[in-house]
Amino acid sequence: MRILVVEDDLEAQRYLVQGLKESGHVVDDAADGDLGLSLALSRPYDVAIIDRMLPKMDGLGVVAEMREHGNTTPVLFLSALSEVDDRVKGLKAGGDDYLTKPYAFVELLARVDALMRRRSPVTVKTRLQVGDLDLDLLTRAAKRGDQMIDLQPREFRLLEYLMRHAGQVVTRTMLLESVWEYHFDPQTNVIDVHISRLRAKIDKGFDTPLLHTIRGAGYMIRAR
Amino acid sequence: MTRASFGLLRTQAFRIVLVYVLLFAFSVSALLFFTYWNTRRTLDAQTDQIIEAEITGLNEQYLRLGIRGLDESVMYHSLHPGQGELYILADAQHRVLAGNLDSWPSITNDPGNFVEFDYERRLSGIQDSRRARGRLFPLQTPGGDFYLLVAEDVHDRDLTQRMFTTTLPWTVALILMFGLLGGALMSRNMLRRLDSINRTSGEIIAGNLTRRVPVSGAHDEFDALAENLNRMLDRIERLMKGLREVTDSVAHDLRTPLNRLRQRLEQSQARLSLAGSDTSEIERAIAETDQLIATFNALLLIAETDAGTARGTMTPLDLASVAADVSELYEPLAEEKNVTLNLVRSFGAKEAMIEGNRSLISQALANLVDNAIKYTPPGGQVTIRPALNFQSVDICVADSGPGIPQEERPRVIERFVRLEASRHSPGTGLGLSLVAAVAHFHNAQLLLDDNAPGLTATLRFPKPAQRNIPGPAKVPQIPSRDAAE
Description:
The structure holds two protein chains of two kinds.
Chain A: E1 2-6, H1 10-22, E2 26-30, H2 33-42, E3 47-51, H3 59-68, E4 75-79, H4 86-92, E5 97-100, H5 105-119, E6 127-130, E7 133-136, E8 141-144, E9 147-149, H6 153-164, E10 170-171, H7 172-179, H8 190-202, E11 211-214, E12 218-221
Parallel strand pairs in A: 1-2, 1-3, 3-4, 4-5
Antiparallel strand pairs in A: 6-7, 7-8, 8-9, 10-12, 11-12
Chain B: H1 3-10, H2 12-79, E1 85-91, E2 96-99, E3 114-123, E4 126-141, E5 144-153, H3 155-205, H4 221-274, H5 280-307, E6 315-318, H6 319-336, E7 340-343, E8 353-356, H7 358-375, E9 381-388, E10 392-399, H8 409-412, H9 431-441, E11 445-450, E12 455-462, H10 481-484
Helix pairs in contact in B: 2-3, 4-5, 5-9, 6-7, 7-9
């Protein structure tokens, strides 16, 4: 996958590019807004990672300009600014996701993967399947094998999000943002408790666990 | 009565005008009454003087020429009256002997004093009833008692008097009418100018710092006030912008090296783990860094919230649903700790509407619930209770933990303060400070009370659309990009 990194902190950029390359991506980099914009407009990328504050042209300006030219590449904003309303501004300018510095690389990687997945042509799915776990989005019924699973509304949304990102690492912050729509860090890790509840419902009594904890990163649902 | 006219009656300008109009009407009445009273007194004194002089003259005649001479004298005077003088000479039975009155008027027999009476006057064939003022003078002669009455027509004086009594109520009525009308116009004008100032202030409080008070161009004291307010607002806007820039630079300048630090640690961890070495030290260092970042983020958020630089992010929201969401998020955690988490719903969703920043309020409430669960022993209770009061919308989080001693309560809201008892448990010590900052941001109060046993933390929000403050930002406003730069 091709990724564009626009970041003016060269050390952070080097680390980011290296990390992404090690994860198997093809990466272009730019250190200012002007170059970033011309790269974004001239080559096809699967994801663009753009810093909020850039020399020559601000990150918001780059994305607004990209969108104006009809470029729909998913954009992940990186920001070192304070955040009460900055996220809203970033998303409003056309960004797809927003990550505050300092971030863990696994967090960034998980979000980049999620953005790429979003890019692939969206067929309207009415049913999600992972292994023998089956989620019907219309009747809102969950079934594993022949066994019906009774889910609370929030558990349903949690499972749906995990299954839409099957095979991908999903971080706690991503879950909190997507399933609960909270953009803050709860002092206690409440997400873990929700996950263990969900795990008890979908994995308990079955031979192969589907919901896996990825150490130091988050969770993943996968068939094997 | 419409709301507008109620508003008019309540204005200070109208009240002042009302007081002045009443005072003025009172002084005008007093002045008119005094003038009337004084005029009448002067006129009466004049009349009395003339009568006195006449009587003295006639008395001399009587003393010199006796009753017969007086009779002639009266007859002569009656035929040549000056300005409406009246003379009557009568005997003891009040039979008229001489004079220009047909009959003895009905007066009290009160010699020496001035009396007033009505008489019939016939002038060129027209008869009318007129009033006179005169004095009775008894004469005791050897041939019997006689009465001399000398009077003066006071019809004109009565006319003047009537003029006064009919004018007075009209004058007062006109003063009141014009005064109140003028007062209403004046107050309406002032109210309109003040309203525009109030409206602008409301919008500015709601977060739109670019608004300015309109200046009418009349160069009056309201314009002076508006100009001063605008100068003040320019300054506040500059300061807020400066503050924002400072927070942004502090954030940027600290986060960039923190970011590099974390990256280096991650890199070292990756390298060590590839080499098969023990990475637990590095992992601990990363955890410490994350704690450092969390504290910094919390501090920055508190500073930003306290400064209120993001007021444009307020939207109408339902406190009950915010409470339900947070309760739902923490319910499994409570269950795992064997603490019962109750959500009490005591009012309909519509009534719990406030203007606020959903994310900040959720975070504040999450902090309160997190704390409550943390400090409540297994088997205890935590209750989230949204409540609607007369003037406020409350969210209350009550626990059955150890509570906070009364004297410590104001202190725990301060930054970094952690009570001895909780020093060993994780946390930044900024949780309650953030709650307090969020409360401050929303003009809300954070109240800590005894739950006997336990702690009750209440966030008390003012009800929206309080008087004179127009609903802050009816359209949720996200500051434009230009404003951010």
